[in-house]
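Bench log, entry 3. Co-assembly request; chain sequences pasted below exactly as received.
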Amino acid sequence: MKKFSILALTVLAALSFALVGCKKQAKSNTQKIIEEAQSMTLEELAKKAIEESKGKKFYGVGNSSRGKSALPLFIKYLQSFDSSYTLEFEWQQPKNNKIFDQLKADSLKDVGTFAMTLIQDGNQIETKMVQTGVLDTFIPKDWAEANKIDVKKYNGYLALQTLNKVFMYNCVDTTTVFNNCWDFVAEGKHGQFMGIDSEVVGKNFLYMLTAPKYAKNLKDAFDALPAASKTALQAEIDGLAQQAKDLGLDENGKYALAWIKRWVGSYTAVSDDGPICSNLVKSDSQGQFGLLVYSKLRSVEETATTSKNNVKIAAYQDGYQGMGGYGYCHYLFVTDNSPLPWTACAFIAYMTCTVDGFSAWGKDMGGYSSNPVVATGTETKYQHLTKEGDKGYDWWVNQGKLVLEDPAYCASVAFTVGAWIETLDKAA
Amino acid sequence: MEMTEERPISRWALFWAKTKTFFSKPQNVILVVMGIVCTFTTFAPIIAILNDTVQVHAGTIDQYLSGKAEGFTLVNYKDLFTSRLAKTNLWIPLLNTVLVSVLSCVFAILYGGIFAFLVTRTNLKCKKYLSSIFIFPYIMPQWTLATVWSNLFDSVAVTGTKNGLLAGFFGITMPSWWCQGLFPSFIVLGLHYAPFAYILIGGIFRNMDANLEEAATILDTPKWKIMTHVTLPLVRPAILSTILLVFGSSMGSYPVPHFLRLTTLSTKYLEMNANYAGEASILAVIMMLLGVLIMYFNQRSLKSRKSYTTVTGKSGQTSVINLGKAGKYIIGIVFIILTFFTSIYPIISFAFETFLPNPGDYSFLRTWDFKDLTAKWWITSENVTENGMYGQKGMLFNSTIWKGFGGTMLVSVACALTAGTLGTLIGYAVSKNRRSRLAGYVNSVAFLPYLMPSIAVGIAYFVLFSNKYFNLYNTYFLIILVGTVKYIPFASRSSLNSMLQLSGEIEEAAVIQDIPWHKRMTKIIVPIQKSSIISGYLLPFMTCLRELSLFMLLCVQGFILSTTLDYFDEMGLYAFSSGINLILIVTILICNGLINKITGASLDKGIGG
Amino acid sequence: MPKIVLTDVTKRWGDFYAVDHLNLVIDDQSFVTLLGPSGCGKTTTLRMIAGLETPTSGRIEIGDQVVFDSEKGINIPANKRHVGFLFQNYALWPNMTVYQNISFGLKNSKKYTKEQIDEIVQRVSHIVKIEMFMDRYPSELSGGQQQRVAIARTLAPQPQVIFMDEPLSNLDAKLRLEMRAELQRLHLDTGCTFVYVTHDQMEAMTLATRICLIDNGVLQQYDAPLDVYNRPNNLFVADFVGSPSINFVDAHGTQVEDGSMDFGVFGGLKAKFKFANKTDVKKFREEESALMNAKAEEAEEASKDKKHVEKKNKDAKFNYHIARVDEDKDLSPEATLDDYVLGIRPETIKVVSKGGIEAEVYSAMPTGMETTLRLRIGNFILTGVVFGGITYKIGQTVNIKFEGNGISLFSRESGRIIDTGALEV
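Structure output for the full assembly:
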């Protein structure tokens, strides 16, 4: 045993020495290219891309599998300029939180494998990818124009689309009514939700609740509650006032903390939104509710015990008060050591600035393009609003009071509010 | 004599001559080569993880606490052990891990051991059927039994998700401790690993000379005393091996506790990986320490072991214990019912699931109307997004699934061949040099990866091979390498176990006759130990087929079948995941059947045939 | 040709010495048995010669070839030593038929054609009479048949030396006798050198041309069987060989002028011991102490060497046993230079009609051919064997004499033999 450990220690010392990484600091080539590319039109970018990547292989990595469907469309688009253009591609979709490790590992190389990425969870992107210089933001000219943004002053990310998770409940038992977002955390209620530890982006939702705007929303919703419900909650909310102060939140922070505490203490963790949806649409799931991706409803097939009509969207109901759910984004980045930076920029511009480029997502409901022009075009083409009863991004943000992810805010409270959340008791 | 004329030779020449002699024995060559290889494959990931515990991870707690953007810090240790989260993040998961591992061991050994005894030593009925059906739970991916469990027992009233079969059709709601947490976790893991106990313990029972027990019977020893003083000590090595294997596996199991909502070190590891990466790595280190501890105890009891040579080349006879006229049927029926629920029912429910219109929608059982069933999951041949197909083609036409299947076959066959061969050689070499320290070292170091949590090994290898010089992510090479390292213990254990049973004289008899090593192996050792050696190949093969935890962080979904399965499972496409399960089970049954036909050995026969 | 020479061979595991500085020469065509109690190192010795075990130090030659030399780093592997080895458990390959078991080794050497192999298998199986079992598997044979197959397999490659490790210990008594005879015949027929390990002194006596008696890893005596029996080197050898065992009698006295010894024996009786050869006890004592001093010096010298490992299984003085009625009392006082031990073989005790000393019959066990008597003199008991079917009554008084020149005299100090001679009481 002794020899064993001595040997182990020696090998340890040797290897850890070798493992201590080497970091680079210089202003990167990619950043220069991006600067140039931001003033170019899609066509100009396309030509650059053809020049750069003809006959080569393109690696992309993303949280959404549909990058794989978007790439052939992009290639077809490039072929409309140069019919002899070919591009091999591979689109990887790592599991869990793996995408961050993978991008980080790839960043160690002089020239990376991945040309770009499509990625979610603003908080981790900010702290692990952007602040460390692994990923660079590229803002296409058309997108900036459509959003009326001055590229030089803009320091946010480029979002491909916003996804929303909304409160839904089983309505087979008609006496079940949820007309205030505080009803979801009332005594004895258990919502179904993807665990915040398995889907980390769920934590961002809780962080965002403490932001002044959404805390205010919660307070307003609270004020709209009937008196009896209020008194049940009042003591708990007041009890958190000091905590809110300690965490540096404003006077409405206590409402946010109370809601978070109740939610974390009551929700039933489910592995994915798919199963939550399957659970809710059953006729015997009376009184059940959940917070899940809106688009899951499209997968339900009508049978004797299962129906889409068994659930209602809380925010669509008359008189509903407070947030209807939360929204988070799929962001697009160019890797700082991208092997094909021009092609990456062109692909990103194609997805964010054309209806065709967005069609890999746009053809199904549930994702809203960040480009207003593309959003309108997509609706004209696929008509999700008219056909499927979706009320659209604007409605959700304004009337539906969607809680929107703000990466910078999330990152700033991740270890204050975040650490506090860790200490909360979770539902068994 | 010319002795006086001889000059003493130089020390160097003496050393050289001794080295040459040392390496003239094949077992020594194997030991040295495997010693070097295993030192790297085992310690490199350990060091990578240890290194990770003191690294600053951008965007995680350690950066926040240490205020450093990069470099080294010990803050992870401090925070994990002393912060107010220590209980939630460390102690409770640790306690749960130990409990679930110990209870799984106990359950697996009792269930598998009793079954092994009944099958090998009594006149139980339906042995053949039971014996092959018993190993099904091991063939199936771990968490499938867990999903079967929740599909049976979950209820809106207790678990707050959906009504399972029991609640939905009979209105029976089981209490919460029964539905989730420790109890179902260890039952499911125990059932999953009971085949280990059956194979290992059964192998000894099969080869054990009944005279040993009969000798005691004649001395008028009471039955229970024979059991505790003669039989159990004889199967002790097998029980110890089982404990090692089951403990290591249950400790590192991610999917089962995840599905059944028990917080263990491995589920905590994944939970903490995003924001507490360094602290998560400490959890991995703790898991490794637990593994090493178990191995240390195992090693200690091996040292005190008397030599149990039961196969000597002499004929051994086994006697059969009579369970009585009714007993042999009653016990048989009891096991047929038990194995129905653990082995047949999941398959039926998988098959059924692939025809349900919505995941978990059992309308058909209420209406008996075939309109409430669908074949769309199998036969949809175009890319549609509606009807819950999520843009996937039906399984028969789904290139993702069949590509994954091809990848899985490649990985499994390659892992089985390399792990099986290397493991068998290690087992052989160690058994030949039982007293030598090198052998002890190689044996331990080759075994260690098995005791490390799969996920941690996966991550460690990812870190090791994702750097400036190599990037092996998502390559078959990396997956096969990791699989081989992780599964060598299967083969080395089963081969060591059986080699220790084989009297050394059997090979010496051939050495004396100047029969070259490769012939001794191929004509004598391997044929005699055929069954156990084949199980040394089969176990890695089967395990690889449905391995998830180890590979899930090393490749993208669609690369191999188990990640594809997991992908569909998480998406809620239970029809697809069930279908893939079916494909896996059928594949394994076919392989097992083929091997059985060709070699006469089969997995359930384990050691000795 | 194959003379086997062991020079200063030692084998130890840690501080356990299995074989301690063994020197041995085994002549060509001899039949040597390595004899000793269990765990004395005899099997280890055999395995070292065969190459199955590596000595810690020393040198082994087989024929003109040095097969092992620790100083020169020579270690010829077992397979190149061209020897035969018969294992205790036969070690038949259970996956092969009898024919395959015998022919397997031959098939691997390119010397033989298929016909020749057939012929050899025929021949050796004929020698051990197993021609009819050629297609059976070992598990289908009885113990004796398996043993014969093992012998045939050993003989097939025509080794010059055959090693046997307790080959008969797994057989029943009758078969053992039968096989013993066959082994003897085999030795003559083959003209090989046989080295045979056994713990059964009868087997060693009957088979061997020379017996090598080992205790605790140390060679005790290496002589022809009858020499070992008649003139044992020391108390241990005297005790180990012979059945019923030799009688030990404490004797106290001195050498008188005519060269004989005057002893007090059996707690007071006077006895006279006449040496068979002219022996000067004083000289013997001098030699004895010189030898013991030399040994002690050597041990001290060795312990100074850093590499030396002290023998944990220390060589103890042989604790000879004197049969008495009141066994529980320990009467043997400190040994002085006037203390001796007499070794009296049972067959030298004769029952006579008158004269000699009186003894009471303590027990009598007739077998027909002979009768084993236990005789009581005072508190002491002697075992004697008388031939013929005479019936003795328990308790009856008989007169006995010690016959012949075959009584051994040992020094109590070192346990070594001084000489043999005649004893008159």
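The longest strand of chain A covers residues 158-170. Chain A has two domains: 26-161+329-398, 162-326+403-423.
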